[in-house]
Design goal:
Blueprint lengths: L9 H11 L31 H16 L7 H16 L2 H14 L4 H13 L3 H14 L4 H13 L5 H11 L4 H13 L3 H10 L1 H4 L3 H13 L3 H14 L3 H13 L3 H14 L3 H13 L3 H14 L4 H13 L3 H14 L4 H11 L6 H14 L5 H12 L3 H14 L4 H14 L4 H17 L4 H13 L3 H14 L4 H14 L2 H26 L10
Helix pairs in contact: 1-22, 2-7, 2-9, 3-4, 3-5, 4-5, 5-6, 6-7, 7-8, 8-9, 9-10, 9-12, 10-12, 12-13, 13-14, 14-15, 15-16, 16-17, 17-18, 18-19, 18-20, 19-20, 20-21, 21-22, 22-23, 22-24, 23-24, 24-25, 24-26, 25-26, 26-27, 26-28, 27-28, 28-29
Length: 539
């Protein structure tokens, strides 16, 4: 197999790693963030809203407010209002609605009556009419609490974002309304604003902290906001009373996210033994591979594929393992199997093209796969990225540079494309100041689009050194090391930058760190090289 591989500069092979490991394509990416990667539902937490208990409490609040209504015009009107409330409390909703309708003929601008009408209609399962009644009450009395709570509740149940400003108005009037806080927290979370949701989770804690949906919502928001320790504690507490699959998976994800892959795999073991939840199997495969247990990683991923054979992501993940272990033909065979079931999957054509591009004789076929992936999904710019890498690999620098520039204009928000453009410019015009400036701009753009994109920061550090900006180079290297402490390239660039700045003491310390990381990475590569995937034919 070794003779079939193409000889190429490390940077170009690294470019293929970026394509195959892009957050757009592979679950093995370390750059995705909780709840943002839409291609990986297993990496998203469930959005279960506050349960019915909260809504019942909210309705009781509304009824208690309605019970206190008094009309100044006469004692008779006050008694009639009380009668309506008593009918609602007793469940006589049709009679209550009839009384409200009669009363409105005399008092057509009484917002309290429209609020009671909304309650009656809601209890009769006539929600659209109920919402109209509450909305009309609010046009007459914008601060009527019963109408605000009723409208908020109905819009909340519809998952309507308009519930958010209404709930905020409820809380402004009654800051201790915990059901309103709970619903606002859930609504803000669904809208993707966990930072704003967390104070409202806290404000509703004393009433809802025992409810699974509430606990999961707060835990997910804590994780999304980066407070992984608090999120893990919440999920562990949640598991004591609700050992559900999704919560076990979420806890394992958080443990992995905080660098505890071994602990995460242990947490996931019950789901792996059960073997009925495909996301757990594929995530378990990722964890096993990260811990150096490639045979188990392959087995778990194979089981995930058998369980859900039409999930393209699992085939891509297998291609990733094959790529890492230089078992390109085996990876190609598995992707071929996926394409038989999913013949129109652009990511699968792209993954197969990346594998084929590692075998000299199959480069023309790889180009065909990249072009076909682009035809199937023109928005999948990674296929064009890969095509450009192949052209560079064939020493067709002018074509690849032109391709990257053209695609960068069409896809200005693609960090991988910006990174590859920067790399290509830096290689093709090493002695040009103008080209160096353009390369730096593209690499900076990549880091802005994805602040955790380590290869882009490594490249930017290298380019700053070339531009004689050692301080900026050191800063980029430090940012890369925050995300990947064993990033050998970042340590090397920081060492060069520090040496250029004349800090001898720091240079000595960095030299020791670099040597330790170099040895660790060499050992890791040896472990990776221990395994090659082989295709076993049946009898």
């Amino acid at each position: 197999m070794g003779g079939m591989e193409n000889s190429r500069p490390p940077c170009l092979r690294h470019g293929f790693v970026q394509v195959l490991n892009s957050p757009k394509l592979s679950a093995f990416s370390q750059g995705d963030h909780l709840g943002l990667n839409v291609l990986h539902p297993r990496r998203k937490f469930l959005r279960i809203e506050i349960g019915t208990a909260g809504l019942r409490l909210c309705l009781l609040c509304v009824l208690s407010i309605a019970a206190g209504l008094r009309v100044a015009q006469s004692q008779k009107s006050a008694l009639q209002m009380d009668d309506i409330v008593k009918l609602l409390r007793s469940g006589s909703n049709e009679q209550a609605l009839n009384l409200v309708t009669t009363r409105l003929k005399t008092y057509p601008k009484d917002c309290r009556l429209y609020s009671l009408q909304g309650m009656a209609l809601n209890s009769l399962s006539r929600q659209p009419e109920a919402l109209q009644a509450f909305d009309h009450a609010l046009t007459l009395c914008p601060t009527n609490l019963a109408a605000l709570e009723g409208a908020a509740q109905l819009r909340y149940l519809q998952r309507d974002k308009k519930a958010i400003p209404i709930l905020e108005r409820v809380i402004a009037i009654r800051p201790t309304n915990q059901p309103a806080h709970a619903m606002l927290a859930s609504s803000l979370r669904s809208a993707g604003n966990c930072k704003a949701a967390l104070p409202h989770f806290e404000a509703s804690r004393s009433v809802f902290s025992g409810e699974a949906e509430w606990m999961e919502g707060e835990a997910a928001c804590l994780a999304t906001s980066g407070d992984y320790a608090a999120a893990q504690a919440q999920y562990r507490e949640l598991q004591k009373t609700h050992p559900e699959t999704a919560y076990v998976y979420a806890l394992a994800w958080l443990e992995s996210r905080t660098g505890n892959d071994r602990e995460a795999l242990a947490t996931l073991e019950p789901l792996l033994k059960e073997g009925t939840y495909a996301p757990a199997l594929s995530f378990g495969s990722y964890l096993a591979e990260s811990l150096g247990d490639t045979p188990r990683a392959v087995d778990l991923l194979r089981r995930a594929i058998l369980l859900v054979p039409d999930n393209a992501q699992n085939y891509v993940d297998f291609a990733n393992i094959a790529f890492i272990h230089k078992s390109f033909p085996v990876g190609i065979s598995m992707v071929d199997a996926g394409l038989k079931r999913l013949p129109d999957s652009a990511p699968l054509y792209l993954a197969r093209g990346v594998l084929k591009a590692q075998i000299t004789a199959q480069i023309p076929s790889a180009i065909q796969d990249f072009e076909h992936a682009h035809r199937l999904d023109p928005k999948l710019s990674l296929s064009v990225d890969a095509l450009g890498i192949v052209k560079t690999q064939q020493y067709n620098d002018a074509d690849s540079w032109e391709l990257f520039e053209r695609q960068a204009k069409l896809n200005p928000d693609d960090p991988v494309l910006q990174y590859l453009l920067a790399e290509q410019i830096s290689q093709a015009s090493e002695n040009s100041e103008e080209a160096l400036g353009r390369a730096i701009a593209a690499a900076k753009r990549a880091t802005v689009l994805d602040p955790h994109y380590v290869p882009a920061r490594d490249l930017l550090a290298k380019l700053y050194l070339r531009a004689n900006e050692p301080k900026l180079a050191a800063e980029q290297a430090e940012r890369a090391l925050e995300d990947e402490p064993n990033d050998q390239e970042a340590l090397y660039q920081k060492l060069l930058a520090t040496r250029r700045m004349g800090d001898r003491a720091a240079v000595q310390e960095l030299s020791k760190q670099f040597e330790a990381v170099r040895r660790a990475n060499t050992e890791r590569q040896k472990n990776l090289d221990r395994f090659r995937l082989e295709e076993v034919k049946g009898p």
